[in-house]
Amino acid sequence: MKVPFLDLKLQHQAIRTEVLAALADTYDNTRFCLGKDVEDFEKAFSATLGYPRTLGLNSGTSPLHLASICGGFGPGDEIITTSFTFASSCWGISYVGAKPVFVDIDADTWCISPEAMAKAITPKTKGIVVVHIFGQPARMDEIMVLAKQHKLFVVEDCAQAVGATYKGAPIGGIGDCGTFSFYPTKNLGACGEGGAFVSRHPAVMDHAQLLRVHGSPKRYTHTEVGFNFRMDGFQGAALNIKLKKLAGWTARRRAIAAQYRAGIKRSDVQLPVVPAYGESVWHQFTLLHPKRDDLRVHLDQAGVGTEIIYPGPMHRQPCYASLGYAAGSLPVAEKTSATCVSLPIFPELTDAQVEHVIKAVNAF
Ligand SMILES: *Cc1c(COP(=O)(O)O)cnc(C)c1O
Predict the structure, then answer these.
(1) Pairing state of beta strands 177-181 and 195-198?
(2) Exposed end of the chain (fewer CB within 10 Å): N or C?
(3) Do the first three CATH levels of 8-243 and 246-362 match, i.e. the same topology?
(4) Nearest residue CA, atom 2 of ligand 1?
(5) 83-119: pLDDT as tens digits
(6) Residue with the nearest Cα to atom 14 of ligand 1?
(7) Domain residue limits, the chain
(8) Domain 246-362 is in which class?
(9) How far is the CA of 253 from the centre of ligand 1 (A)?
(10) Does CATH number 3.40.640.10 belong to domain 8-243?
(11) What distance in angstroms lies between residue 191's CA and the mean position of ligand 1's atoms?
């Protein structure tokens, strides 16, 4: 039996007719940049997931850039963030000339450790970029206590966690702003690039909205140096259809994760921990094994596709060498990167395929 790590074609075959009809309508009405499809999507995203307002953008990196500007980050500021993430989580910090301060993660959820964060706060600390990694919410209560004490602007990178909740509240609405990616492989993927920005502060939303289209409150008047971060109409149209399926897809990811957690029985494997405070949306199902490279070869021979997400933590990336983090400086992030392997988890997997993966892991 073959179990690919991810097969996007299955999802897109199932909704092909519906999506192509919507794209044709967008085409025929030339709603190419922002426009009604994007506005409809913004409203539906807010209503479905529980945000006061949403801005549709051209990627998941752009909202992180906007977040840094809205947070007032700049040269001389230190922004605390997690090292165990996709690179883009840190880009917003670097784009505005602020300094990323990488701290270690919790050993069970692989999200940023509030205790490590507390130790890294200095008079220069201006903000925090939290990442809800693999769809698992970070410990927001502890993070928000620190933020309040030290007057820090909290950015939640929700790129992997659309629909996840922390103590019943939608992630992204707890900190000062939240950012989403609709890259095709994400839980809610566009047919191309896309992203979104949310904030519970109306003034932050207004600022981000101004920056999204050339800092222009009125045609040919520019009150600030802005960007072209518009979502295109085709993406809004496709996302409107896909958003309606998201709850079902998330339920299916949760069922697969439950099947893995019940079926994988090895004392040498660390399974993802599910804390009582949050409901993960399982963007990845990752486990740790001391011989993960051998495990990957074994799974490959059994027809099971796997990935290493992420093989190198950010504090050890060449682009941040000048920050001077030595090997061993963030031991939990480094150990997690050295031992992690992600199993297939996408809604179209069959129970039999999941069972095949479980048997293959147990037989290693
Ligand atoms: C995918 C991702 C992003 C960036 O999204 P793009 O749409 O590719 O720009 C940011 N942060 C995390 C954690 C991601 O997984």
Answers:
(1) antiparallel
(2) N
(3) no
(4) 159
(5) 999 999 999 999 999 999 999 999 999 999 999 999 9
(6) 159
(7) 8-243, 246-362
(8) alpha beta
(9) 19
(10) yes
(11) 15
